[in-house]
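Bug #77: duplicate submission created two jobs. Keeping one. Sequence:
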Amino acid sequence: MSGGTDLSASFTIVIPTLQRSALLPELVSRLAGSPQVHEVLVINNASEPWAHPAEKCRVLDMTENIFVNPAWNLGAHEATTGLIGLVNDDVLFDPRILGPIAKRLVRGAGIIGPATACVRGVDAPSARSWHRPLFVPTYERDVAFGTAMFMRRQDYVPIPSDLKVWRGDDYLFRRQVRRNLVMLGIDIRTHMSTTSDDPAFDAVKEADMQAFADLHGVDSYRLRYWKEFRISRAVRSSGRRITQLTNRKKVTHG
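Kept job's structure:
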């Protein structure tokens, strides 16, 4: 590990894996090459050992699959930096986004994650050249938000043990005191749900959904920011209505 780094503004990136994603080696290489990253912590849930030559990469081999949410808990516990990132093993992004993310977290953001509009296929042509991401307050978890979430380590809330695969991102999102932000204007390359779409996990996911609904579904975050949430929803509804009316006029006069 490199010395002399301000660990309060550096990241430990936590990546749970079953080694099913071909993107994992490149993802680790990209992140390990970032000056913003102190350590890449791979939680290996597969039966076969996994290794990466990067000095910043540390692998924790599990004796059995502990699943993604417990792996996040373990990674947050093991982290020695002020900031953490919870990143899927099947995504790629430009690590230069970590600098602006770190500044936002230090200045007062809760969790930061990407908007679904940022998601592109791995082989799709780049939609945009590099520029700093745009950060917007969000009061509902976007579909792609959980693919790469960033927060202060002290803001991490351990996920209950009865949530194994699903709803961990919702649990964390809803228990933040500080405002969560969604990122726009970046490219997130992913195969999306490389592991969790496996039918072998269907029973586990169903149990997660039930446990979340019965025991952990209180949205304290939305209650805290309910006025902003209502305004945000009204603005989005108005925007959709304007778009619909515009499209109707185009059809009528086309």
